[in-house]
Structure formats: structure tokens, C-alpha cells
Fold:
Amino acid sequence: MNPTKLLALTPLLVVACTHTANDAVDRNYTDYVDMKIGTGGHGHVFMGANVPFGMVQLGPTSVPQEWDWCSGYHDSDSTVIGFSHTHLSGTGIGDLFDVTVMPVTGDVTYSRGETGKEGSGLWSYADRSKEVARPGYYSVPLTRYGINAELTATNRVGLHRYTFPKSDSAAIVFDLQNGGCWDRATETKMEALNDSTIAGYRYSKGWAADQKVYFVAQFSKPFSSFELKGRDDMYGRASFATDSAEQVMLKVAISPVSIEGAEANMKAEMPGWDFEGTTDAALKQWNDELGRIDVTSTDSVELTKFYTGLFHTMIVPATFNDVDSSYRGADGQVRKNNSLTNYTIFSLWDTYRAAMPLMSLINPERYTDMINTMLLICDEQGRLPVWHLWGNETNCMVGNPGIIPVADAIVNNQPGIDRDRAYAALLKTANDTIRGLNLRNEYGFIPSDKMTESIAYDMEYAIADAAVARAAEAMGDTANVRKFTERSHSYRNYFDPTTHFIRGRMADKSWRTPFDPTSSNHRADDYCEGNAWQYTWLVPHDIEGLEACFGSREATVAKLDSLFSVSSELTGELISNDITGLIGQYAHGNEPSHHVIYFYTMLGQPDKAADKVRQVLGDLYFANPNGLSGNEDAGQMSAWYILSSLGFYQVEPASGRFWFGSPIFDTASIKVPGGKFTIKTVNNSKDNKYIRGIKLNGKPYDKYYITYDDIMKGGELEFTMAAE
Structure:
């Protein structure tokens, strides 16, 4: 599609199309993607041009360096300091924003500047009324300079097209000083190789301690001069004269390895200057990926929410190798691995819950590469990743989340995975002694007087241990089945039978006092981004054990009912900003709660699960900028929506079971190795939200869950819905 035609479309018009099953073959799924969803509130969603899982995330970066600008963009603000080639999406910490490019006219101050003081830096306001954003393409006018900016991308190359006014002092400025929020440049270099090419690198330190980004940039118009500017020569100005409405293009290739790698990436992915062709190719890549799930509905809003959510799950993890397979390992060494695409940006504490299981269903080939990347990381740093960013282990968040998708791959017998190697990585990581594991080994749990966030660390370790036990079972290792199953019960030490809450416990087995289940003291109490109400249910792997703690199924269900009905008031000295999307004390805006609704199904009351699933789908996801109840968290928030709207969710890590909730679409077809797995609903409506009957491949089905194997074989799952 010609981007100039897109300028006449508003985002609402772009997503207002509806389709039926008859035109599914020719569907343009990107029509449903509203890229503004999640850019307001605390969504922290990336805005710009990219391709699925691409290394380049090319989009605007704003002046503020605050929490809600972790992606560089927020719906409430229209400042632009430039267009950066790396961004994060949906995280709680800001980093990257490497190799920022800003088109200008006239003299400028070479700094970030201050909001409200135009002229204090390079920045300009953007005319958001004329902003156009669709998968693979972004455009916005910069009012200060009278320049219209257009962006598109391949995997490793960003392509810019700037329409300048008539000027004798037009320029494109490269900014290597300013990164994202917590990021700071430690060493930079750039130089002109000829009158239309510059090259350089940016090393920085932030959330990730040692980031290296190399780049090569080519101009479609030769520059008359290239000058280093600003503090420590971290800005470079390429100057030229322009006629009225003259278009100047710029392509920037990046590499985590070398300038030579960036040059090779450009030659392979973008040898010419075809902006429309690149835009069309990016759009096709997105359409192909989004088409992995074909859903039909007469509700265009639900289609917009679904395909925008699916889009969000395909931004990261990001490619992290050059076209020749070179990548920078977790130990800083450059290697080649011709057998896989290497990935980075693994927000595993978030994504092990739904985003990674979704990936295993709809894109098993890419999932295989992601698991093998994790195994490489284990080889290079000595353990599976926790939160890996641009080749660096940040150790952000609690537990051993890297264990869970690897165990899942073993249990599901994922093609292309060396199961013996993967199992060895699980045991190596689980038997480590860092991050409180030494205390857990000594006491059987992590005492709350020995370590901050003790409950959160221990309970996430317990979930990972259960995943190891399931992998051990798949590998026929009965000794480790027993060992890790027992270790997965460590959470029981924190269950107080008098209050029926998980609460802090000391080394001498006494309880932490005073105790308030609504209290939150962000990153400074026994929990992590939560309180006792939420963490009492962080036992997705052992519902039977939790039931035993409460004393009976009836008592468990009654307590679960109260989770959703109590006051949503939070107390504490520093209440976590992550406890959002509250229904009672259920917090859908943060990941530890994401499985809890499906406990109703597991406890034999799927009607209550259906009620709550439909409530969350309808009340906590919206087709507007404030459409998410918390951080997107690298696709996890949307992955919950995708799976739940299809009618199921994987509660128990590495179980191979997806428990039923309440599907909302008339039909949904997933492309799987066995062909298609189709989900049909009969008599489905807002009122008919309860599952009254199930058939699998035409035969009555009496389980509360569907298995991974049955989905991947292909076939048909039919739900008959009713109002009771």
C-alpha cells in the first residue's frame, strides 16, 4: 500500500473494517490493528515502524524520561527529540533508544531539551492530528521544522523519508547521547565515510550494564558537510540545502556485533531506496504473522482488540544476530550459530505465563529458536536467563522464570530441541545457590528476615521447581520428580492457617507482624509488586495442595470468591504502581494474578470462571490508548487476552494443559503443524457465556481442559454455550 494514501486515513478508519469467514483467504488482518491501544495509561507500548520480532524498532522518542515513557512514547505527550532505532515495549523500566535521528532546519541546540521550552534542544512538537500508524509504517509532521517524517523498516534496517521545506540549512542530526530513561552513553563514535555515508557505534549502560550498538547510515542525497556537535561529539549534523517539499531518505542498519555487520545487514536487507516496496513488505510480514489465528466476529471492536493484542505479542523477543548469524553472547563474546535466529529481550517473569505458551502454539518454529537461544545463554552465563536485554542479564524480577518455557518445551517434545541438553540446563539453573536459593536450601524456604521479597522469590522458585519435576517425569528421571515436587511445596511454609493468607515468615518460624493483607511497600516488603491477597493464589502448579491448606474445596472457593468481592483499597507506605486492574483485590494489571480466574474451573466451578473471564475481557481491555490495565509487559497482557478469548489458558507451567474459560468468538482457526485447529462456538453471545457442552472432532468431550498435543494435531473443538 502506498503510504501517501494512508495520510488520508485516521486510526479509527484504519481499524473499522469487518470481515466474515468467506473472505478469510484474502483478509488483511492489519486492518484491525490500532497501534494507539496501550500507548496511554501505564501500557508503555512501542509506537513506530517494525516487522515481527525485528531487531529494529524505529519510532519517536519524546523528551520526558519518566516511567510512563518507558517505550519513548506516551499518548499524553507530543514531543519528539528524534526517531530511535531500538525501543522497548510494555516494560516497567526504560532502556535502549539507540541511534536517534532528527531532521531539522536552521540552527539548533544539541541537547535533549525541556518540555515546554521549544528551542531548548533539538525537539519539536508532533502534530498528532495527522499522525498515521499501522504495522510497518509510521508518519507524523514535526511542527517546529515544517518537516513530515515517514518511517518503515526491515528486520535490521530502518528506512526514513523526510519531506523538507525549502531551506539552505536543512540537516539530519544523529544523536548518540540520549537513550531511554535509565540508559546513559558510555562511549560513542561516528564519522563520515563519504558524502552520503556515516558509520559509528554507541555503547551504553542502564538497565542492561553493557550494551553495544553499531550502525551504518546512507543518505539518498549527498550532504554538503558532516560535523560533530554537542557534548563529547555525541551529535553529528549532516547538512544540505532542500527545495520545497523535497524528500530526503535515510537508511540506517544496526548490528550488535560490528560496523561491518551493520553494513552487511544493509546490503542484504535494503540495497535500494524503495520506500513503498519496503512498507508493503513489512505490511505483508505482519499480515502473515497475524494470520496465524483467524477469528470471525460481527463485533469490530473485539476484532480490533484481538488483532492489536496479537500484534503486541509479536514485537519482542527481538532478533539479535546479523545476517551472517553473528551475535554477541551473554559473556560478551561474538559467535556464529547458523542453525538458529538468536533472540533478545526476554521478559520471562511476565511472558512464561501466557506469551510463551501462545508462541509455542502459533509459531512453534520461532519458539524453537527462542528456546535454543535460552540454552545458548545458559552455556554462556552459566544459567538460564531471568530478564535478558541486548546480550545482558539484568536479573530483573524474582524466581527462575527461564526454567519454565524450557521445561514446557521438554514436556511438549518441542521439535528442534535437544532434550538432554535442555534438561541439563534446567537442573543446572534450579540447583544454583544465588538470589536466595542458598537460603531456600538451608531453611526449606526463604525466611522473610533474611531477604527482601522473600515470599515472591520463594513462590516463583516453587513454580519453577514444579516445571522441573514435570520435565523430569517426561525424561524418566523419577528421583528428580520426587525432589523437585517436594521443593515445589515450599510455599506452604508461608500459609498461615489462622488468617488463611500467605504472609512473611521468619527463620525461627514466627510470623511477621503486624500483618495487613492489603499492604504494599513497593520492592521493600515480602512480596513483589503485590500483597498477601494476590500472593495467596500464586500456586498455579499445586491447586490440590492449596486446597489442603484451606482445609476443603468449599473453603478454598469461598476464599477465592472473597478475592473478587473485598474492597480494592490498598494500604502501605509506597503502594506499587503495578497493582492495577483491580476487581476486589484481584489485580489483572500484573502477572501474578493472571492464572487465578482459571482456578474456578480447576476447582469444579467453571461457571464462575466464565463470569470473571468475560468481565476482564470486557471491562479491562479497551480499543483506545488507555486500553490496558497495566504494562503490556512484552506481550503478556495481550497474550492473556488472546488465549482467554479463544476459550482456554495454560495455568500449570509445563503441564501441556489449557483450562477452559469462556470463548468469545464465533469461530477461530489456529495454524498448527497438523493443519488447522478450529474452535467453534454454538449459541455464543454476551449472555450465553457458559459452556454447556463440548465436542472434540465431533465426539463428546468431558474434560475441563484441552491438551497441547490435541491442539497441535489439528481438528475441531466445539463449545455449545448457554445463559446458565
Remarks:
- The two ends are 47 Å apart (CA to CA).
- The chain has a mean pLDDT of 95.
- Residues 454-475 form the longest helix (22 residues).
